[in-house]
Amino acid sequence: MLARSAFVAAAVAIATAVFLFPPASRLSWNSEETVADMILANATIYTADPARPFAEAMAVRAGRVLSVGGYDSVKKLKGRRTFELNLSGNVVLPGFIDSHVHFIDGGVQLARVPLRGVRSKDDFINRVKEAVRDKHHGQWVFGGGWNNDFWGGDFPTAAWLDDISPDNPVWLSRMDGHMGIANSLAMRIAGIDRNTNNPIGGTIMKTPEGEPTGLLVDAAMKLVFDVIPQVSIHQRRDALLRASRHALMRGVTTVVDVGSYFPGQSEKQSWEDFTDVYEWAHSTKKMIMRVCLFFPMPTWSRVSELIHDKGRLLSQWIHLGGVKAFLDGSLGSSSALFYEHYKDDPQSYGLQLVDMDNLLNTTLESDKSGLQVAIHAIGDKANDMLLSMFDKVVDLNGMKDHRFRIEHAQHLAPGAAKCFGKHGIIASVQPDHLLDDADSAGKKIGIERAERSSYSFRSLLDGGAHLAFGSDWPVSDINPLQAIQTAISRKPPGWEVPWIPTERLTLDDSLKAHTISAAYACFLDHVLGSLSEGKYADFVVLPCTSWNEFSSDIPDYVLATYVNGKQAYP
Q1: What are 450-467's pLDDT values in tens digits?
Q2: pLDDT tens for each residue of 333-351
Q3: Where would I find the beta strands (DSSP E) of 2-140?
Q4: Number of CB atoms found within 10 A of residue 242's CB
Q5: For residues 533 and 29, is the Cβ–Cβ distance under 8 A?
Q6: Is 213 helix (H, G, I), strand (E, B) or coil?
Q7: pTM for the full model?
């Protein structure tokens, strides 16, 4: 096994050997005179390429895979200055692609009150109390990641926070991003009281006496968002760099960033992040990993104009993907849209956040202009509505390579999984969400419904869907190795048996969903997703020294991450 220290030494040795990939006209991959910058030798390489699933050696030149195969053939590309890294059998995988993140928000969240994993009311309150202690009078306190199911299901209220934050407004978002809790001072600043009506597409939770509890759902969150001081440009730039380092530590070399666009939130932030953060990072050469950007669907014409002016690839680092919209909310906030009512709220079937005629028309225009369309749907009814709508789009716009995406596809009605295959729809799913929902879904919608409809990964694949794995960070942490393990075992912590075992995936299925299938899901499979000749040399090295070791005991960390054949972590 190659130790961590060996990778640090290797990084110094090859730091100057990797260059930006020149135009294809200037580099002949088949030229006998081509010499590798680096060769990986004695490795266990999983390529995600069906033409050659495994290899023992790989040559890299100018940031791309020059050759992959047996060592005897690859070593012919070795020159006097070629650096050879003997991996002593370590497993190498293509760099992971996270198909659904809110990347800059995740970076911001890393510097806020950490509430993910909190399992008691007391711990929740104490963490906020510690954060308030460091704030000036009147300064906002932000945090996120809490999950009320971890402490029995009771939602937090403003009363939990008011005694410890009388002089500081507080806003703490739930782990799914579809609900948050405000203290009383924050509600006063936002003008929320017993007379405030629910906005369209949102809910202000109130006591039986009509007083707001502090909980705001979906579009109602905008009431607080409108009075929260904006995170500065410099803070969001720092957040991008912080997020990138965090992702690389987990072996992620490319993310699909669906932006800072949520129900009830303005489209403005996503565009400011593009101009003030991503373009800044690109122009100052601070990009250290790849991103595919999706923009709010209401701004589709602006995205179309941007691509017309600049093309889809701003550089090797930034790809302009398409547009994203929401149809419903989330299971945890009881706003996912179902055919049947919630078990714990017989009056609620969830929320439909948009008018379907408007969504159809905007999707038609976006698709017609060549933009990829991604739409959030969690409940079974919401997913069926989208599948029917995509049928109409194909009928009206004609057959072509649409690659429609349904983000989450979390709960499906019987037969829905097969409908994904009709038009090759991408199911952009998040395996680690089931670790939370396995316990809570039965309480929300009933055990029989939950086990019939939830996280139907095997059914989706068998039905012809393209599966793309992601994390939805910062809702769940970026952790591809854990997500792969989750998809294979479907065992939440403390469980001895799988949750819905018929929906388990194989290791190969799961790896592809985080690599080549994820690349296909964002039109980047020609340059990413597999260790194939001509593609970017983005890969991870694992601590396992054989495939048997890896497949029997998936590790919880990567040993090293390479981007463009250059070590990016550690």
Answers
A1: 999 999 999 999 999 999
A2: 899 999 999 998 999 999 9
A3: 38-41, 44-46, 54-55, 57-61, 64-69, 83-86, 91-94, 96-101, 113-114
A4: 17
A5: yes
A6: strand
A7: 0.86
